[in-house]
Amino acid sequence: PTRLAIFISGTGSNMEALLEACEEDDYPAKPVLVLANKASAGGLEKAKARGIQTVVVDHKVFGGDREAFEHAIQAELEKHDVEFIALAGFMRVLTPWFIGKWEGKMINIHPSLLPSFPGLHTHQRAIAAKCRLHGCSVHYVTAGVDEGPIIGQAAVPIFPDDTPDTLAARVLVAEHKLYPACLEAAVSDDQNSSYVQMSDDPDAPFIISAP
Ligand code: GAR
What we know:
- The structure is a single chain.
- By secondary structure, the protein is α/β, with parallel strands linked by helices.
- It has helices at about 15-20, 45-50, 65-80, 95-100, 120-130, 165-185, and strands spanning about 1-10, 30-35, 55, 85, 105-110, 135-140, 150-155, 195, 205-210.
- It has a nine-stranded mixed β-sheet, with helices on both faces.
- The longest helix has 24 residues, at about 165-185.
- Bound molecules: glycinamide ribonucleotide.
- It catalyses: N(1)-(5-phospho-beta-D-ribosyl)glycinamide + (6R)-10-formyltetrahydrofolate = N(2)-formyl-N(1)-(5-phospho-beta-D-ribosyl)glycinamide + (6S)-5,6,7,8-tetrahydrofolate + H(+).
């Protein structure tokens, strides 16, 4: 299996979904490192509880020198022979240097149906725009923030009484299904595993994944 690092900044629920998937027989990735840019990231304890190696590379130590921060990250990745990176709620923008090094080997999950709503506050913006559908996207990381080739997407309805929080919770359920499916497609470089999954349950995500 491909040696995987997962980068987090917070709760790490997507990280947990990936770690769970990696425990399945025949899953093509093996988590060897969880890296956080904050010691307070809640996901660190969850990773440790599953016996996964963790490391904190605190961006603040580098006083705004983003490449120095990334050189420290790169050293950790080399130490653990990492082959593929999944960003899972990692809230630092990476430089072209780092992205170039990992091109085609680094993916991200973003909480909107890209190319709509790149950036922050996606749920609030989708409600304000009166969208009827919203969701999440998994994409390769390229120099343009939230602009890389899309691997898969999951859509959920927006209901009239939704708040950013209720919508975020619905999208998060979809994220946890989408990310393991897309990671699997990406590490096995599967160009043909497109599928559509629908459900009668209005709260269930409508998943379209097209590598
Ligand atoms: C997720 O909703 C993820 O899509 C989002 O942050 C949340 C992290 O939750 N990512 C971004 O906004 C990236 N810019 P988690 O820590 O529980 O996985």
